[in-house]
Amino acid sequence: MQYVTPDLCDAYPDLVQVVEPMFSNFGGRDSFGGEIVTVKCFEDNSRVKEQVELDGTGKVMVVDGGGSLRHALLGDMLAEKAARNGWEGIIIYGCIRDVDVIAQTELGVQALATHPRKSEKRGLGDLNVPVTFCGVTFRPGEYVYADNNGILVSPEPLKMPD
Considering the entire predicted model, what is its pTM? Predict the structure, then answer.
């Protein structure tokens, strides 16, 4: 499904929240949306690795990495696994790596920046808790939509206007 966030903003002005514009699109899909699944972690992508193993059909993983620019929380192997397991996309409030491969992967990926250093694996992090960054709270079970124009959050699923 192709989402156009300006059209969604126009159609649902009182429903959507707009995430502050800090993210760049890195994935093979430049438009994606779905039900929010959250991961809260800091410089440890253990929970991200666990989640990409699960069926992500119709879902977008929102990772609150605390905005860290010191480690990548997603690389090519996890992105490819997420794509194979049906995830619509991953939004990372932090960094990713292996961007040339991720750009060829059938997955939406938005992040703050890139960093070549992998994250630590200490098994730390929280799943499906509300996370807040860039002026918006992402709640599990709500919906997120992203494209090259930005990222929107809605308490309910949205349909593209005709």
Answer: 0.97
- Ligand-binding annotation for 76, yes or no, is yes
For residue 7, the tally of other CB atoms under 10 A from its CB is 14
Residues 107, 28 contacting (CB under 8 angstroms): yes
pLDDT (tens digit per residue) in 76-119: 999 999 999 999 999 999 999 999 999 999 999 999 999 999 99
Q: Give the DSSP H/E element, type plus range, for residue 50.
A: helix 46-52
State yes or no: 44 annotated in a binding site.
no
What is the DSSP code (8-state) at residue 68? Answer: -
75 is in an annotated binding site: yes
- Tell whether residue 55 is among the known ligand binding residues: no
How far is the C-alpha of 4 from the C-alpha of 104, rounded, in Å? 21
The pLDDT assigned to 162 comes to: 87
Helix (H) or strand (E) holding 35: strand 32-40
Of the options 3.40.630.10, 3.50.30.40, 3.40.1160.10, 3.50.50.60, the CATH number for the domain spanning 5-154: 3.50.30.40
Cα–Cα distances in angstroms (integers) from residue 79 to residues 48, 64, 83, 149, 158, in the given order: 10, 17, 6, 22, 25
Residue 73 C-beta-side C-alpha neighbours within 13 Å:
35
What DSSP designation does 109 have? E
